[in-house]
Amino acid sequence: MKTFNTMFKPTSIFLTIVLLLMSTFYQSASAAMIGAERLLDLDGSPETRDYLQQLMARKDVQDALVACGINPMEAKAHISSFSDTEIQQIAEKINQLPAGAGFANFAIVVALVIVIAFIIFEYTGVTNIFPF
Questions:
Q1: 79: domain range?
Q2: What pTM did the predictor assign?
Q3: Which of 98, 44, 43, 54 minimizes the C-alpha distance to 79?
Q4: Which of 6, 15, 55, 60 is the most buried (most CB within 10 A)?
Protein backbone atom coordinates (compact mmCIF):
# COMPACT_ATOMS: atom_id res chain seq x y z
CA MET A 1 0.00 0.00 0.00
CA LYS A 2 2.94 2.28 0.71
CA THR A 3 4.28 1.90 -2.84
CA PHE A 4 0.83 2.59 -4.25
CA ASN A 5 0.60 5.87 -2.34
CA THR A 6 4.10 6.95 -3.36
CA MET A 7 3.46 6.14 -7.02
CA PHE A 8 0.08 7.78 -7.45
CA LYS A 9 0.34 10.71 -5.04
CA PRO A 10 2.03 13.04 -7.59
CA THR A 11 -0.51 12.03 -10.23
CA SER A 12 -3.44 12.67 -7.94
CA ILE A 13 -2.06 16.07 -6.93
CA PHE A 14 -1.55 17.02 -10.57
CA LEU A 15 -5.06 15.91 -11.54
CA THR A 16 -6.56 17.78 -8.59
CA ILE A 17 -4.83 20.99 -9.63
CA VAL A 18 -5.88 20.57 -13.27
CA LEU A 19 -9.51 19.94 -12.35
CA LEU A 20 -9.56 22.94 -10.02
CA LEU A 21 -8.10 25.14 -12.75
CA MET A 22 -10.64 23.88 -15.26
CA SER A 23 -13.52 24.67 -12.95
CA THR A 24 -12.42 28.29 -12.54
CA PHE A 25 -12.99 29.09 -16.23
CA TYR A 26 -16.72 28.38 -16.13
CA GLN A 27 -19.03 31.29 -15.49
CA SER A 28 -22.39 31.08 -13.88
CA ALA A 29 -25.43 31.79 -16.00
CA SER A 30 -27.07 35.17 -15.80
CA ALA A 31 -30.67 35.92 -16.64
CA ALA A 32 -32.16 39.20 -17.74
CA MET A 33 -35.37 40.46 -19.26
CA ILE A 34 -35.50 40.45 -23.05
CA GLY A 35 -37.48 43.18 -24.73
CA ALA A 36 -40.21 42.49 -27.25
CA GLU A 37 -38.29 44.41 -29.93
CA ARG A 38 -35.43 42.00 -29.71
CA LEU A 39 -37.70 38.97 -29.90
CA LEU A 40 -39.77 40.17 -32.80
CA ASP A 41 -36.98 41.88 -34.78
CA LEU A 42 -39.48 43.30 -37.24
CA ASP A 43 -37.13 46.03 -38.43
CA GLY A 44 -34.89 43.79 -40.56
CA SER A 45 -37.37 41.36 -42.07
CA PRO A 46 -38.86 43.51 -44.89
CA GLU A 47 -35.41 44.49 -46.13
CA THR A 48 -34.21 40.89 -45.89
CA ARG A 49 -37.26 39.64 -47.77
CA ASP A 50 -36.67 42.27 -50.47
CA TYR A 51 -33.01 41.27 -50.66
CA LEU A 52 -33.94 37.65 -51.27
CA GLN A 53 -36.54 38.64 -53.87
CA GLN A 54 -33.92 40.76 -55.68
CA LEU A 55 -31.50 37.85 -55.48
CA MET A 56 -34.09 35.56 -57.04
CA ALA A 57 -34.61 38.07 -59.88
CA ARG A 58 -30.98 37.76 -61.02
CA LYS A 59 -30.41 35.77 -64.19
CA ASP A 60 -27.48 33.73 -62.85
CA VAL A 61 -29.46 32.65 -59.80
CA GLN A 62 -32.42 31.65 -61.98
CA ASP A 63 -30.09 29.68 -64.26
CA ALA A 64 -28.64 27.87 -61.23
CA LEU A 65 -32.14 27.04 -59.98
CA VAL A 66 -33.16 25.69 -63.39
CA ALA A 67 -29.95 23.61 -63.51
CA CYS A 68 -30.96 22.09 -60.15
CA GLY A 69 -34.47 21.35 -61.46
CA ILE A 70 -36.25 24.09 -59.50
CA ASN A 71 -38.77 26.41 -61.10
CA PRO A 72 -37.76 30.03 -60.28
CA MET A 73 -41.43 31.09 -59.93
CA GLU A 74 -42.04 28.36 -57.38
CA ALA A 75 -38.94 29.44 -55.47
CA LYS A 76 -40.22 33.04 -55.38
CA ALA A 77 -43.57 31.79 -54.09
CA HIS A 78 -41.81 29.82 -51.36
CA ILE A 79 -39.86 32.89 -50.28
CA SER A 80 -43.13 34.80 -49.97
CA SER A 81 -44.56 32.09 -47.71
CA PHE A 82 -41.57 31.84 -45.34
CA SER A 83 -41.76 33.30 -41.85
CA ASP A 84 -39.52 36.17 -40.78
CA THR A 85 -37.18 33.92 -38.83
CA GLU A 86 -36.80 31.56 -41.79
CA ILE A 87 -36.05 34.51 -44.08
CA GLN A 88 -33.44 35.75 -41.60
CA GLN A 89 -31.80 32.31 -41.42
CA ILE A 90 -31.66 32.00 -45.22
CA ALA A 91 -30.15 35.48 -45.61
CA GLU A 92 -27.53 34.73 -42.94
CA LYS A 93 -26.64 31.46 -44.66
CA ILE A 94 -26.28 33.20 -48.03
CA ASN A 95 -24.10 35.92 -46.51
CA GLN A 96 -21.84 33.33 -44.89
CA LEU A 97 -21.17 31.44 -48.11
CA PRO A 98 -17.79 32.32 -49.59
CA ALA A 99 -17.64 33.29 -53.24
CA GLY A 100 -15.92 30.63 -55.33
CA ALA A 101 -15.54 28.29 -52.37
CA GLY A 102 -15.00 25.07 -54.29
CA PHE A 103 -12.15 26.24 -56.52
CA ALA A 104 -9.33 25.76 -54.00
CA ASN A 105 -10.33 22.17 -53.27
CA PHE A 106 -10.71 21.46 -56.97
CA ALA A 107 -7.26 22.91 -57.73
CA ILE A 108 -5.63 20.80 -55.01
CA VAL A 109 -7.29 17.62 -56.27
CA VAL A 110 -6.25 18.34 -59.86
CA ALA A 111 -2.66 19.03 -58.79
CA LEU A 112 -2.51 15.79 -56.79
CA VAL A 113 -3.91 13.79 -59.70
CA ILE A 114 -1.31 15.25 -62.03
CA VAL A 115 1.56 14.54 -59.62
CA ILE A 116 0.36 10.97 -59.05
CA ALA A 117 0.00 10.44 -62.80
CA PHE A 118 3.57 11.70 -63.36
CA ILE A 119 4.92 9.34 -60.70
CA ILE A 120 3.01 6.37 -62.14
CA PHE A 121 4.21 7.19 -65.68
CA GLU A 122 7.78 7.50 -64.43
CA TYR A 123 7.83 4.15 -62.63
CA THR A 124 6.06 2.25 -65.41
CA GLY A 125 8.52 3.56 -67.96
CA VAL A 126 5.99 5.32 -70.16
CA THR A 127 7.87 8.63 -69.90
CA ASN A 128 11.17 9.89 -68.55
CA ILE A 129 10.00 12.88 -66.52
CA PHE A 130 12.50 12.64 -63.68
CA PRO A 131 15.90 11.70 -65.13
CA PHE A 132 18.09 9.99 -62.52
A1: 43-98
A2: 0.40
A3: 54
A4: 55
Domain presence at residue 92: yes
Residue 4 maps to a domain: no
HSE-up of 127 (CA within 13 Å, CB side)? 7
Contact status, residue 35 vs residue 43, Cβ threshold 8 Å: no
Chain-centroid distance, C-alpha 78: 24
Distance CA 117, CA 128 (A): 13
Largest CA distance in the chain: 80
